[in-house]
Amino acid sequence: MAVIPNLFIVGAPKCGTTSMDNYLNQHPDIYMSEEKELHYFGSDIKRYPEFVCSTERYEAAFSNWRNEKRIGESSTLYLMSRLAAKEIKAYSPDARIIIILRDPIDMLLSYHVHLYYSHIQNISDFREALAEGEKRRFMQNGNEADIDPDKITNTMDLRVYRDAVKYTVQVERYFNVFGRENVHVILFDDFKKDIAAVYRDTLKFLGVDDRFEPDFRFLNSSRMVGTKGIWRPPLIARALARKVFSQQQREWLVELIFHKLLGKVDSKKPKELIDNKLRAELRAEFAPEIERLGILLNRDLSHWNAG
Question: Helices (DSSP H) in 166-302: which residue ranges?
Fold first, then answer.
């Protein structure tokens, strides 16, 4: 009998989801899939080789489940997908959803670097990549108003950057599909400020023992090497590593490879930097979106418009 996950961390990308996945997986009542970023759902997203497409392979990701109360997975493109919420609901009607959001400019800068070193994006300059994304939007969609989101598949281009930070419509979509009470929204600012408090609130939301304290140390892999095989090892290599090494040993090995052995080839380009002119332009552009999100979440997000 297939194990049906009932917990989904759906995004946004580059907002601390890997850390949250790690912390939740340490809890004795929570099982997170061995493989992160499965992206089984979201049929509108352009498919990449790393994505899980077969039901058999998706179910295998939970094969080591040992009766934990919560069974989860983290796929950060589910949030921007127009179809993932409905597809997840059909598969797991009682699922709980976790969303982590970050200042849209900071998120896009980090997202750009990630796509570049994942060889999805080949433009290193952030401004140029933004502009190219709008051209791709036109080629991909034409007039968005003419699109029936229930009929499009395998077309959503990850390089259309501005689509990644349409937070309000994305969060509303999950509220509407799952009910607001089943969607837990975390701000990355709170996550950094008091991670223990955010973690406890998340455990309460999931209905598991909130007295548990994980090891909050985490590997910050913002320094990336420009080789896809190193940045994200092949699936077979990761599967073998899981059988041979414990999670702590695997994290130590990654730390050794990234920061010791491969430090000299760390190109650190493109950098997560932005000129003042472009930052000001984006602040003005995103201000209405930030205001709408603040109203939806009943949170003051004015600090996202500063600087």
Answer: 167-178, 188-193, 195-206, 228-231, 235-244, 247-256, 276-297
Sign of the torsion angle spanned by Cα atoms 197, 199, 205, 207: negative
Are 137 and 163 in contact by the 8 Å Cβ rule? The answer is: yes
Bridge partners, 300 (sequence order): none
For 270-295, b/e burial (b = at least 16 CB within 10 A) is: beeebeeeeeeebbeebeebbebbbe
Two tokens, residue 150: 């229930």
Cis peptide preceding 270, ω within 30 of 0: yes
- Tell me the per-residue pLDDT of 25-69, one tens digit each, with 9 for 90 and over: 999 999 999 899 999 999 999 888 889 999 999 999 999 999 999
Query: Is the N-terminal amide bond of 129 cis, ω within 30° of 0?
Result: no
Tell me, what amino acid is at 107?
Answer: M
Distance (Å, rounded) from C-alpha 142 to C-alpha 186? 33
Q: What is the mean pLDDT of residues 280-306?
A: 96
Give the model confidence (pLDDT) of 149-182 as tens digits.
555 555 788 999 999 999 999 999 999 999 999 9
Structural domain boundaries in the chain: 7-222
pLDDT (tens digit per residue) in 222-248: 433 333 333 445 445 555 665 666 555
Predicted pLDDT of residue 253: 60
Question: Phi-psi region for residue 14, left (φ > 0), alpha (ψ -120 to 50) or beta?
Answer: left
Query: Which residues 6+ apart lie within 8 Å of 5 measured at CB?
Result: 33, 62, 71, 72, 73, 92, 95
Nearest by Cα to 17 from 59, 70, 78, 65: 78
pLDDT in tens, 289-299: 999 999 999 99
Tell me if 110 sits within 8 A of 14, measured CB to CB.
yes
Q: Is the pLDDT confidence value at 258 over 80?
A: no
The CATH architecture that domain 7-222 belongs to is 3-Layer(aba) Sandwich (3.40)
